Sequence to fold (236 residues):
Amino acid sequence: MSNRSKDQAPLNHDIQLEQKLLHYRSEIKKFQRIIHLQKKKLSSQEEEIEAFKQQSLFNQPMYQQKPPSTYQKPEAMAGIYSFFSYSTFLPVKPSAGSEEPCFINGNFTIRNDSGVPLRDPLICLRFSKPNLANLSGKVNQNKRNYASEHIVADESLQAWSYLPDHSLKKVRETGEFWLRPTIKQLDHQKELVFQQFEILLPYNGSSFSVSINGYIYGLEIPNGRQALNTIICNVT
Fold:
């Protein structure tokens, strides 16, 4: 081998090493960009998940209850259900200048066929449009939080009361009425009825639609259970 070839061999080796080093640096930068993009994507997904959680919490009734001390299997509690029975009265002659409201009169019944008692029962009546939420019936009033629009028809039949921290301001925000009966336990094969409640829906000649869902809660069903049917009022 000539002296020139001997001199070029180390040089070629150095060039190859430098090329490999440049390649590795390029690969490192590429992977760093990929990691950065993945972190950014993950952060965005976490924000979306958190937003969905917040939205879910906002859309769900706000009752929170500790789990029962004696655990009941879900199938054991399947016999606890609720339903509306109601009548809707629409304006006789609906017109743009009409002051005659739509009127709903009904009962909300809880039935326990589960074989075990339902302790600390609560109900929630939720309006799809909070600005239309109103409720009158046989309810003990919290005068500090409730206006006179909520009328008790017969004091001798009072069996329900609003939760202490519930107010009309919250109703206007959430569309939810929360009520607790005077009884502390609904036994097997018994019924509990929030009876003869009234709802007035103002009508000004424009079509509207509103629905009212019912939910039941208790120590045995802390996550709540929706009623079998829904009140729906469509005016066109």
Summary: Residues 52-72, 143-158 have pLDDT under 50 and may be disordered. The radius of gyration is 32 Å. The first helix runs from residue 3 to 59.
